[in-house]
Specification:
9 helices; 214 residues
Length: 214
């Protein structure tokens, strides 16, 4: 057993509460689903889950803890993450109405959003700190499994729950936004809408650095 059943209900309750708190990941997935449809939203969710698995492995191996203890490393991550999101926003804002993707073109768009979701989360130091500070709180000394094994199991459970939650979000937002995808006026501006979302995420990320330094 790699998760203490005595603390499992508390862990599940905490994870559900955290998933319900709006954050940059939820904003990216919801806006992708609204702008480009459920298929793109699913790929954005899978990208988020992929980055979560990578962060889980890093946390289990102790690598993320070493990075989190280095303030300079966290600042570099924030700057890189903010710059990456700014570039994505700029690319979207430069797109004209003719660049709005047709339904049959969304396979390539889905792959692009998958990559963006992976990198935007990996370059978010708050996600790194979350795995470093949150998972160890539920490591039990009562189990024979090592702390690394327990953190791996806890992280995998967190990622599965997060993926299910995000897919439900995609289903809800994608269904509600389906009529918009058939609206020519909306489609002409959907890239600019996503550009504003990426700019908002960049400000969100870089703003956290200013608060930390002040």
């Amino acid at each position: 057993m790699m998760i203490d059943l005595a603390i499992l209900p508390l862990y599940l309750t905490t994870v559900i509460a955290l998933l319900l708190i709006p954050g940059p990941d939820m904003l990216l997935i919801a806006s992708s689903s609204l702008s480009y449809g459920k298929r793109v939203g699913v790929f954005a969710s899978l990208g988020n889950a992929t980055s979560g698995l990578i962060l889980t492995l890093l946390a289990a191996m102790g690598v993320s803890a070493l990075i989190a203890m280095n303030p300079m490393a966290l600042q570099v991550l924030r700057i890189l993450g903010g710059a990456y999101l700014m570039k994505m926003g700029w690319d979207c804002m430069r797109s004209g109405p003719l660049d709005a993707p047709e339904i049959e073109q969304q396979s390539g768009l889905a792959k692009m959003l998958y990559r963006r979701a992976v990198f935007s989360n990996l370059l978010n130091p708050k996600a790194l700190l979350f795995f470093v500070l949150f998972l160890p709180q539920f490591v039990s000394p009562e189990l024979t499994a090592t702390s690394g094994e327990q953190m791996l199991a806890l992280g995998l459970l967190l990622n599965v729950m997060g993926l299910v939650f995000n897919l439900l979000l995609v289903l809800m937002v994608g269904t509600l936004g389906k009529p918009l995808l058939k609206n020519d006026k909306f489609r002409a501006n959907q890239n600019k809408f996503m550009g504003m979302i990426f700019f908002a995420l960049a400000i969100w990320l870089l703003g956290s650095q200013v608060q930390t330094m002040s």
